[in-house]
Amino acid sequence: MDKGYIDFKWLYSLTQQSVFFVTRAKDNMVYEVTGQQDFTEGTGVVSDDNGPTREKTYTDYPEHLRMVRYYDLKTEKLYTFITNNFKLTAKTIANIYKDRWQVKLFFKWIKQNLKIKNFLGTSKNAVMTQI
């Protein structure tokens, strides 16, 4: 999901349902680093930290989050991602966020070319039937 949609109460509800997320951190997010994870250098990953959010957001998300900083050579930009997944590699976390754009473009193509404005269901069967 994009950083414009960050709602820590909602993110915490996802965590409680055993759903993992990857999103970009807002530039003004206050974050306390209490630990670091190993990462492979030369992959674009600059850091892989974990710790709690601070102040008001801590009451909305009382568990630790993982913050992955990734430098993209193509765009020459530094991206900061937050996630509740501590098992995947930092490079995989960056790739998940990058690949979300392809999913977005795919659904845009479906809506434009198949003249589908809304999906009537969310199951695989419902989507396949409507297509």
Q: Secondary-structure blueprint of this entry?
A:
Elements lengths: L7 H9 L5 E3 L10 E2 L8 E7 L4 H5 L4 E8 L4 E7 L6 H24 L10 H7 L1
Antiparallel strand pairs: 1-5, 2-3, 3-4, 4-5
In short:
This protein has one domain.
Core attributes:
alpha+beta, 4 helices, 5-stranded antiparallel beta sheet, 131 residues, 34% helix
Overview of the molecule:
- The protein has 131 residues and is an alpha+beta fold.
- The chain has helices at residues 8-16, 56-60, 90-113, 124-130; strands spanning 22-24, 35-36, 45-51, 65-72, 77-83.
- It is built from four helices and five strands, in the order αβββαββαα.
- A hairpin with an 8-residue loop joins β2 (35-36) and β3.
- The protein starts with 7 loop residues before the first helix and ends with a helix.
